């Protein structure tokens, strides 16, 4: 028997960019210590008060089927958070709770894509984006942002491939680059969307990690509220990666359709996890800033270190928990450099090529270990690069 073409072609013939990460995990399983700077996993665990509230909710009996679009109180809380941040009127009818941001990305595309439709996305991109689009039976088309533009996507590049497309997936603050899209960039994206009748699916899971400038949601721009679906998550803002809870915010009619989709797929999110998410959001912006602070601090440490050498370049990072490093001066691809660094020094980073052709010759470094080990690893990486450049 043969699997479906959708499943067989999900990765487009590749490994979804996880080769170096998987090799590092095999080394660890074999007993070799590895310094991991690969995935966006906090070096702190979910805060005890959140877990205690989750336990309270579970022991209190909220363990049966929960409302499929989410509990009314959590949807109200998410709506209030989004409205406060953007100024756009938002109610529970605009919110559906999902099992994490990844499920929200898939659901959002299922809501607006028909089989064979062209779905656009920006390169560099989070590694799951192309597979998510293929899983929704779309035809993925990447739009290159350029390192020379600090990976800010150009409106004219989007417009060149927009005719006939159905959607555009954007991500700011951006994974993998750490770039926060400027007001000019967002205005350009919105203009192209209006002119070419595109849905915008905006992945905003890093909106609480802004180091410079400000986060702009395309949903808040003129003429965009009815053509934008926003993906959010508790994973990054509250260190709740394993709890798998996120949301889609969008027009009321689309949320109603997504509720039907969830009824036939996930059947919602456990109630005790939703209660804990509501409690966590109630801790406010100060708590989110506390979760984000280690990455702000490590970014500053990295900037100071990288300023002392001229082999490894730093793409201007204004948000998220990653740095994008330019190692083209070594003459190595990002993948070759990452594999060599792993073999020589047992330091694991993600090759830029894992995130698209535009990031070739770059590395993504996750700032997810304690300060001293992070700087030691970065210092070793720079020394290793200098040896190859020489």
UniProtKB/TrEMBL annotation:
Transmembrane stretches, start-end: none
Cofactors named for this entry: pyridoxal 5'-phosphate
Keywords of the record: Aminotransferase, Pyridoxal phosphate, Transferase
InterPro entries in the record: Aminotransferase_I/II_large, AspAT/PAT-like, NHTrfase_class1_PyrdxlP-BS, PyrdxlP-dep_Trfase, PyrdxlP-dep_Trfase_major, PyrdxlP-dep_Trfase_small
Annotated PANTHER family: ASPARTATE AMINOTRANSFERASE
Similarity remark: Belongs to the class-I pyridoxal-phosphate-dependent aminotransferase family.
Protein name: Aminotransferase
Organism of derivation: Sulfitobacter albidus
